[in-house]
Design a protein that fits this description.
By secondary structure, this protein is an alpha/beta fold. Helix content is about 25%, strand content about 15%.
């Protein structure tokens, strides 16, 4: 069993999800995990970044800014991991800009 890892781009990163995202929460958490990250429910000093969708929870955002935790949008997250798992066959592919060299995957 277990999740098939796709990359280590989020290795060791703790990610808090808030708000409404294009994918379901379980799918987003699975996406984080497949890239080596750890989805968690509450913002703390250990949080790497907050992934904020539309209508994010105010308490998580204010806690993040209080602790200096970066808040990323869905688009930033997608360009960070370099791909998007389309929720369904009919969904149009999202064009993803090429990642800058420092995020290039090393095999």
């Amino acid at each position: 069993g277990g999740i098939q890892k796709q990359s280590d781009v989020l290795a060791g990163q703790i990610v808090v999800i808030t708000g409404t995202l294009p994918l379901g929460r379980e799918q987003v958490e699975a996406l984080i995990a497949t890239h080596g990250g750890k989805p968690t429910g509450s913002v703390s000093k250990k949080t790497s970044f907050v992934l904020a969708g539309s209508e994010p929870g105010g308490s998580k955002i204010s806690k993040a800014s209080e602790l200096g935790v970066p808040v990323r949008s869905w688009d930033e997250f997608v360009s960070l991991i370099g791909e998007i798992a389309a929720p369904s066959e009919s969904a149009p592919a999202v064009p993803v800009p090429p990642a800058p060299p420092e995020q290039a995957r090393l095999f």
